[in-house]
Specification:
The chain has eight helices and nine strands. The chain is an alpha/beta fold and 234 residues long. An eight-stranded mixed barrel has the order 1-2-4-5-6-7-8-9. Strand 7, helix 7 and strand 8 form a beta-alpha-beta unit. Helix 2 packs parallel to helix 4. It is globular, with a radius of gyration of 17 Å.
């Protein structure tokens, strides 16, 4: 027997001085194979329309979690959900997610869609149109893992985004490398110029947090702020 679960990890907002937003990761619990992480099963789902159904399931699960937390007087300001580029090219995706948030009485700005794949030239216009439609309805949109997939900052300027995320691999040597520090500072400065907030992933220590905080990043996630848990553990 297999069950799918959504896990949540806090994202610290420097402007609010608290962590009330949560990024998510999907896991499959298999009675025989144990816990199967997202990075294992999502590439398989990407080859079919299953990835679209998984993305929609995640939206519904997040809305349920937000509602359950509100009933316990626990504030989940917004939930960050990974969404496939393939899903973003589907014509009725925006309509479907709007129906889900309406069903639970959740404000659209409580959901942030997170894109971690490169957006190929062939689908760039479709994806941009979907992003624009989502933001018009007040959903939030982020492009994450900068430094892993995305090689050109200029490509990001084509999209109307709430957040741009810096991948943890880019900050591995930041305490000791001036080159890494200058690179991260350059990305943060660029994001400010296009009026987009910056999320830095993979923060493990206070020293790293303090350094990048001084550079002007807006949000932080990683083990230093907490691990992934089920919503009932928040």
């Amino acid at each position: 027997m297999r069950t799918i679960e959504l896990f949540y990890r806090p994202v610290f907002d420097i402007h609010l001085n608290m962590a009330i937003d949560f990024e998510t990761v999907m896991k499959i619990n298999d009675r025989i194979q144990g816990v199967i992480p997202e990075k294992i099963f999502m590439p398989v789902a990407e080859k079919s329309n299953q990835v679209v159904q998984l993305n929609l399931w995640a939206v519904e699960e997040a809305c349920e979690a937000i509602k359950r937390c509100a009933e316990r007087e626990v504030d989940m300001n917004s939930v960050i959900i990974w969404v496939s580029v393939k899903t973003l090219t589907k014509k009725n995706f925006v309509t479907q997610v709007k129906k889900i948030v309406d069903k639970y009485g959740i404000s659209p700005d409580s959901i942030c869609f997170n894109i971690t794949e490169s957006i190929l030239e062939a689908v760039k216009d479709k994806v941009k149109a979907t992003i624009d439609a989502l933001r018009e309805l007040e959903f939030r949109v982020a492009i994450d893992d900068l430094g892993l997939e995305y090689t050109s900052l200029s490509n990001l300027a084509h999209y109307d985004l709430d957040y741009i995320g810096i991948h943890e691999s880019m900050i591995e040597d930041i305490l000791y490398s001036e080159k890494v520090q200058n690179t991260v500072q350059g990305i943060i400065d660029f994001c400010k110029k296009i009026d987009t907030q910056v999320i830095v992933n993979g923060i493990e220590t206070k020293e790293v947090f303090d350094l990048i905080n001084k550079m002007g990043a807006d949000r932080f996630s990683g083990p230093y702020f907490g691990e992934f848990v089920k919503d009932k553990q928040i």
